[in-house]
């Protein structure tokens, strides 16, 4: 029997299941992200003394900055895990499709960040006495699209920075400049919805396009990065 | 080869001098802003030159990924470095002009913010080059991400942030400048672009030499491995 290359779907399933199981056992990523985001929230509230009206205005920015920095911590760990025991080298020589690995890692990180968002929301509501004046369903859409934007680029740049000196310093240096347009759209959408002024339709569409474009670019270039010298 | 470069360099020097004369002396003084406006002859040509450099960087990066020729990578890094320098010129001359005219050094309007983000993206590209030991593949990949991001940056800031001033040239009714001002602008643009091309060329040669030295080191390491390791 000749060995056949594993299918994309198979790789997706196995990798995501493996990452989730590892995370379930260690809870490294979620714990560090959650505690870090909590710290950001608390430190921000010490830095500004806000009324409910003011906090509604700046909460959009705050939430996303906290999430962005927290996500960086988890994204740094996602590839470091594969370096131990030369897992990534094994993957490189295997006939498995590389883009499946990228998608699987992205989806795994997406799940972590969405869980983080779900845990963070009550915190924000309590600490900043937030109440959305716009449709909550749109907030859910922003948080999903925004999480994907951070995670797709973050997973990709994690793979790049893994190949450099001082990996963990490198990742945010690459991720933050590229994420600026997505961040601007996320913050704009969130603030629009929270304050109930106008429609968040345009930033949502923008985020969706951003997600599609950068996921595709990452998808096509991942093999190149994986096999880079 | 050498002599043609000297002629080329002298020609660019003459062009730059002509641009300086056009901008500082020949062009008419702007009515409301006065002489401060003359910084515009350096500001805008630098901006266009920087964009051209980043465009070259993008093209060279794609060429590298397709053909894997070290020459394309050398061109990419040269263009990116010169582009960052010219963007820095833009970001410095802008506030110098804005302070007397607008009364503030900086405002977060669309064009200023986009230029700043552009600068950040390409600085992160140069940092990646440094930290990855000039890894050409990773750099080229990031260059493609950066170029794709530029469009999003501009749109995002235009749509979701503040109002922005109308473009001065080709911005519809009431815009446009004195023909002589345009001439000064054009002279400076040609001079700056030629100067950038020259610096990129010098940097490119330097990068090629560095690549060849690195290659020679690698070859020597292969040809005499055992004794060096044992020592």
Notable features of this structure?
heterodimer; A: 229 residues; mainly alpha; 8 helices; B: 231 residues; 7 helices; globular
Q: Could you describe the 3D structure shown?
A:
The complex is a heterodimer of chains A (229) and B (231). Chain A has helices at 8-26, 28-47, 52-83, 87-93, 98-127, 136-161, 167-195, 201-226. The mean pLDDT of chain A is 86. Chain A contains eight helices and no strands. Chain A has one domain (8-226). Chain A is an all-alpha fold. With 231 residues, chain B is mainly alpha-helical. Chain B has one domain. Chain B contains seven helices and no strands. The termini of chain B are far apart. The interface between A and B is medium-sized, with 32 and 29 residues.
Précis, in short:
By secondary structure, chain A is mainly α.
> How much strand content do the residues of chain B show?
under 5%
Largest sheet of chain A: none
**What is the domain total for the residues of chain A?**
1
Strand count of chain B: 0
Termini gap of chain A: 33 Å
Fold blueprint:
The complex is a heterodimer of chains A (229) and B (231).
Chain A: H1 8-26, H2 28-47, H3 52-83, H4 87-93, H5 98-127, H6 136-161, H7 167-195, H8 201-226
Helix pairs in contact in A: 1-5, 2-3, 2-5, 3-5, 3-6, 3-7, 5-6, 5-8, 6-7, 6-8, 7-8
Chain B: H1 2-26, H2 40-67, H3 70-102, H4 110-131, H5 136-160, H6 179-223, H7 225-230
Helix pairs in contact in B: 1-6, 2-3, 2-5, 2-6, 3-4, 3-6, 4-5
């Amino acid at each position: 029997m000749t060995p056949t290359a594993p299918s994309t779907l198979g790789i997706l399933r196995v990798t995501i299941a493996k990452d989730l199981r590892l995370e379930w056992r260690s809870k490294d990523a979620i714990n560090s992200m959650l505690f870090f985001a909590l710290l950001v929230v608390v430190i921000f509230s010490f830095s500004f003394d806000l009324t409910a009206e003011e906090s509604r205005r700046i909460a959009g920015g705050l939430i996303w900055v906290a999430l962005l920095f927290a996500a960086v911590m988890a994204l740094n760990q996602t590839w470091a895990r594969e370096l131990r025991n030369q897992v990534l080298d094994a993957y490189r020589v295997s006939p498995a499709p590389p883009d499946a690995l990228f998608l699987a890692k992205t989806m795994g990180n997406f799940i972590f960040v969405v869980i983080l968002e779900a845990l963070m929301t009550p915190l924000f509501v309590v600490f900043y006495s937030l109440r959305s004046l716009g449709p909550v369903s749109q907030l859910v859409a922003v948080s999903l699209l925004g999480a994907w934007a951070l995670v797709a680029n973050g997973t990709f740049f994690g793979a790049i920075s893994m190949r450099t000196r001082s990996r963990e310093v490198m990742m945010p240096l690459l991720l933050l400049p590229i994420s600026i347009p997505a961040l601007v759209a996320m913050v704009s959408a969130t603030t629009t919805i929270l304050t109930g002024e106008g429609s968040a339709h345009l930033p949502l569409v923008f985020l969706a396009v951003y997600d599609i474009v950068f996921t595709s670019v990452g998808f096509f270039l991942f093999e190149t990065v994986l096999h880079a010298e | 080869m050498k002599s043609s470069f000297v002629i080329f360099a002298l020609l660019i020097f003459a062009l730059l001098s002509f641009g300086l004369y056009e901008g500082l002396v020949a062009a008419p003084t702007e009515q409301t802003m006065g002489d401060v406006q003359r910084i515009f002859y350096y500001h805008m040509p630098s901006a266009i030159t920087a964009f051209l450099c980043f465009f070259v960087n993008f093209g060279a990066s794609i060429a590298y990924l397709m053909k894997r020729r070290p020459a394309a990578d050398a061109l990419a890094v040269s263009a990116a470095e010169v582009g960052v320098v010219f963007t820095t010129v833009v970001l410095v001359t802008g506030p110098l002009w804005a302070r007397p005219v607008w009364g503030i050094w900086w405002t977060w309007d669309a064009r200023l913010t986009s230029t700043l983000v552009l600068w950040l993206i390409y600085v992160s590209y140069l940092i990646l080059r440094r930290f990855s030991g000039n890894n050409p593949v990773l750099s080229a990949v990031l260059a493609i991400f950066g170029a794709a991001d530029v469009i999003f940056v501009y749109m995002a800031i235009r749509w979701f942030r503040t109002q922005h001033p109308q473009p001065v040239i080709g911005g519809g009714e009431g815009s446009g400048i004195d023909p002589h001002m345009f001439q000064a602008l054009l002279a400076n643009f040609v001079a700056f672009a030629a100067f950038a091309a020259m610096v990129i060329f010098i940097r490119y040669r330097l990068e090629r030499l560095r690549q060849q030295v690195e290659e020679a080191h690698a070859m020597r390491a292969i040809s005499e491995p055992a004794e060096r390791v044992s020592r």
